[in-house]
TrEMBL record:
Its main location: nucleus. This is Truncated transcription factor CAULIFLOWER A-like. Residues 88-180 form the K-box domain. PROSITE patterns: K_BOX, MADS_BOX_1, MADS_BOX_2. Gene3D superfamilies: Transcription factor, MADS-box. It is found in: Nucleus. One of its GO terms (biological process) is positive regulation of transcription by RNA polymerase II. GO terms for cellular component: nucleus.
Length: 251
């Protein structure tokens, strides 16, 4: 004789209701396990009894991972076909999450600043110290990198300035050399002009004396030479006598 169809309605008898819940719950969990194994499906089952007791099953090791996947999937579907009621419901669900996230971030920030550390346990303080050490390590690494880059730039600028200074020094040396050579040429020209201006007048031609063939010729030649020198040294008069006339007169 086959089993009759059970009418789907609330069982009024508490004992019968509890027995039926236990049997159906065991069967439901068994079916969830079977479908997850046979079909390689991710199954998450959550059941609360009328007294608020929780019964759950998850094919994955983490129930939270399946619930998070479900939330992402349902959120993507709601984004595709948004409605006013769904949008309002989404905002009503998202608002508490955002507020809790903001409060957690603010609390972490205060903890990083060294405030409100009393509620933290030893484990929390150790984690906070480790996070601060990691942050300081990253900050020092970035600071050292910037300092090395700044030093490299300054070294390049120093080398450029040294090259420019060397070039200017060479130009200055060449300019001073040219100026010195120019001054030397001017001094030489000035000295040549001065020597040509101060040069004495040319001396008169020497008088050639022929020895006399007579007795006492040497004495007479010397006397004539002395007279000619005295005649040249005396001031000249208006009458100019040529030297050859004076030669005859002295005779």
């Amino acid at each position: 004789m086959g089993r009759g169809r059970v009418q789907l309605r609330r069982i009024e008898n508490k004992i019968s209701r509890q027995v039926t819940f236990s049997k159906r719950r065991t069967g439901l969990l068994k079916k969830a396990h079977e479908i997850s194994v046979l079909c390689d499906a991710d199954v998450a089952l959550i059941v609360f009894s009328n007294k608020g007791k929780l019964f759950e099953y998850s094919s994955d090791s983490s129930m939270e991972r399946i619930i998070e996947r479900y939330e992402q999937h349902s959120y993507a579907e709601r984004q595709l076909v948004p409605t006013d009621s769904e949008s309002q419901a989404n905002w009503s669900l998202e608002c508490p999450k955002l507020w809790s996230t903001i409060e957690a971030l603010q609390r972490n920030l205060r903890n990083f600043m060294g405030e409100e550390l009393d509620p933290l346990s030893l484990r929390d303080l150790q984690l906070l110290e480790q996070q601060i050490d990691n942050s300081l390590r990253r900050i020092r690494t970035r600071k050292n990198k910037l300092m090395l880059e700044s030093i490299s730039e300054l070294q390049k600028k120093e080398k450029t300035l040294q090259d420019q200074n060397k070039m200017l020094a060479e130009k200055l040396k060449v300019s001073e050399k040219m100026q010195t050579e120019h001054e030397q040429r001017e001094l030489q020209n000035l000295a040549q002009n001065s020597s040509s201006f101060m040069q004495p007048p040319p001396s008169p031609p020497a008088t050639i004396l022929f020895p006399s063939l007579t007795i006492g010729g040497n004495y007479q030649a010397k006397e004539r030479t002395n007279k000619e020198v005295e005649a040249q040294s005396r001031p000249s008069t208006n009458t100019v006598i040529p030297p050859w006339m004076l030669h005859h007169v002295n005779r």
